[in-house]
């Protein structure tokens, strides 16, 4: 048993996600939940009573009076930036829900505040809630790619349409699916995890073409169907296909390299391993159309390994107690997936290929214009049940 003192933590945002975090936070032996905070007084009071802690109604008051060492931020996306910055300015460790920000410029501001805070305390910790990096299949794919077993990568295609959301979901909050409140649709809300995994596995593309359909299937003013095409510096191409409209949806990833292909679908990884390099076989084969011999192999995965939000938080708390250490995802990494998301949307808006790095000022200006010119009238229905335990598995 560790003799380290408990980390005093506060939670900001007591909605569906924040409430889920509270359930395990209050069970962690090395954590003391000293406060909860929400701008809706009734929510904060209810959570504080349920978990025997103190309620605050503004994050600035929380930071000034509660004595917390760390904060977990689970609020609407635009608020991630100012709350994170204020926390770093107070020397408070930050674990932020995805995405790091709505657009790249805000992400840069957050990272700059973190770097400035490190000048005063080199051990200050900034983590981001990319729990899908803990999933055994994702970790195994990463391990295979890092081991070079596929050789030179040729193509990655990810069809992830297991993000079905009904109209009731979008009507469940006045901020959801609006340019001013959420800053985007599926790329901003559901797919930060997918885009983080994409860049974690393959890196950030050099050129992006995006095709985003606005409110194609739902009464919303943001994107609910997206197809994107990526080109990487090493010649690899990528495809990214997502929507909140398909049911039953698909979650299929194909990764093709010179030594075969990986298929990930239905929680199973299959490796079709070729006996020779595909690239060499193209040049050397004495057959006009014959394929190189390949072997079908199902890759074993340890499905019993701990996963999820709690694992991310545990690593965050351990890093605080140890004065540093590895996290599931370090906060500044969040800008990579966000860059891809912003580039997809900017490409779609402008109907042109976007070369990275993205013009962050242009995208921020476009977002502001969309928010200011919006004539969308939001209907809010609070009678539905929000199920944040939804899984793509």
From TrEMBL:
SUPFAM superfamilies named in the record: Glyceraldehyde-3-phosphate dehydrogenase-like, C-terminal domain, NAD(P)-binding Rossmann-fold domains
Top-rank lineage group of the source organism: Bacteria
Residue ranges of coiled coil: none
InterPro entries in UniProt: Gfo/Idh/MocA-like_OxRdtase_N, Gfo/Idh/MocA_Oxidoreductase, GFO_IDH_MocA-like_dom, NAD(P)-bd_dom_sf
Domain GFO/IDH/MocA-like oxidoreductase: 139-262
Gfo/Idh/MocA-like oxidoreductase N-terminal domain: residues covered: 7-118
Protein name, as recorded: Gfo/Idh/MocA family oxidoreductase
Organism: Paenibacillus agricola
Organism placement in taxonomy: Bacteria, Bacillati, Bacillota, Bacilli, Bacillales
